[in-house]
Specification:
The structure is a homotetramer. Chain A is built from 4 helices and 5 strands; from the N terminus they run βαββααββα. The first copy, chain A, is α+β, with helices and mostly antiparallel strands. A 4-stranded antiparallel sheet of chain A has the order 3-2-5-4.
């Protein structure tokens, strides 16, 4: 038997709030998804003005970052034509994405979940996700 | 051209909070999903202790209630063997469900979204969803 | 943050071995699947003579038992025509099954995974799964 | 009528063990899948620490190697943009992959099954799969 550290509902709320704050700050409404260590959805928010087509993209970004244990932006290069990871986006029933904006949440070296952000440009999505992850880490230290 | 009355992000938060309060009151952690008038996800919360397998079920309940414009519990009878609606659960890529716990949100006769609740017994799911819908209606009158 | 108790690889091996022993004892080759608390596959064995069509059924039984936190045999009655759970088998992309032979593994009240067995009659599948769960519980007490 | 030479359950166990040993030797926990000559799952193990998202990838690698009768790494080049095999990853319901780490098992020129390994880097996956195939060949000669 083993013990797995995992995000809880309060952690998920904090991540959603932190991402919302950043999205408001830069004026870009976003879809924000938070999954647990097993890739299962914990929380989601679509801000007013965020694209409906990006709902599933935010979900896929969070799922992929939790499962691959790395930022989706860091997976992309190895999946380009000619690279060994080419075609990985066809697996996982359309839930595996290398679109930037999915970032794992790590505590003491273990991935405990992930956040996925989608509706802005990819750099805006990454900025909001990264800001939420950083602020969450700061909050956890203060707990 | 037409105007669509629709739930916004604040409405979705209120529905999630109202459902969470009821779930806590009856001591049953739930997955809670809120979709807009188009059936697209607006907000989601998995409370600590809610089943992971019920995440997709909550999403399906909300989607179905918004799309069919009726409570999922009210759709079931017409889909039984021998009825004209038999087999409808096979449509929509597995997102159409008659499991009780999906309820549309109606304002002045128009469906503006829906809530789906799943993880408890079907009666607990319905109780939480119904409570959220009722409290939301009260809040809107007070606005 | 929360801590989740979960089956590990050694636990999964023990469950596979215990199920294999029982299957040999009753002379019925089986497909045996073990998933963790999040429903993800940990271990699988197809014994010589087990049906290939039952591979996915064993996987679905284990997934469903872990997710629903109850034996698949106990879910079936509420999903019959006329019951509130009618149609639930259409959800989860064909991975939700009420075929008997999926049983959750529980430790101190928490579901830590599940086993799914398929290739025999449903009573043979249940017998093998139940035997593995019982023997596993005995082994854990002896640890 | 014809006779099909095929991996049996004991062969599958040996392949799983051989792959596990190599994975432990290089310190990379892996998902390991073994399929028979028909591409149907025979055995699977997720080592402690292996990624859940790579479960399905290991399954896909084994399935593809058995079906295409070649290493997944060797299929990739012919599926690149501009090549005739472009887009093949879209077939087989997301089970066809050219990610390296799927290798067929061959006996006297006939493919009798395949192994798929996933969770490490692609070179680590290939190293573990190749080691298992080589050690299995040695064992079979000694039988």
């Amino acid at each position: 038997m083993k013990m797995i550290r995992n995000l809880d509902a309060r952690d998920a709320d904090r991540l959603i709030e932190a991402a919302t704050d950043k999205a408001n700050e830069i004026g870009v409404p976003q879809n924000i998804a938070v999954v647990d260590a097993a890739g299962h959805l914990l929380a989601f928010r679509r801000m007013d003005g965020a694209k409906f087509i990006s709902v599933d993209i935010a979900l896929a970004k969070a799922f992929t970052a939790a499962g691959a244990r790395k930022s989706t932006a860091d997976i992309g290069p190895a999946t380009q034509p000619g690279q060994p990871g080419y075609g990985i986006q066809n697996l996982q029933g359309g839930r595996f994405t290398t679109l930037p904006g999915g970032i794992p949440i790590t505590v003491e070296g273990a991935v405990v979940g992930a956040i996925g952000v989608s509706s802005g440009s990819t750099s805006e999505d990454v900025e909001v996700a990264q800001s939420a992850v950083s602020r969450f880490a700061t909050m956890k230290k203060a707990d």
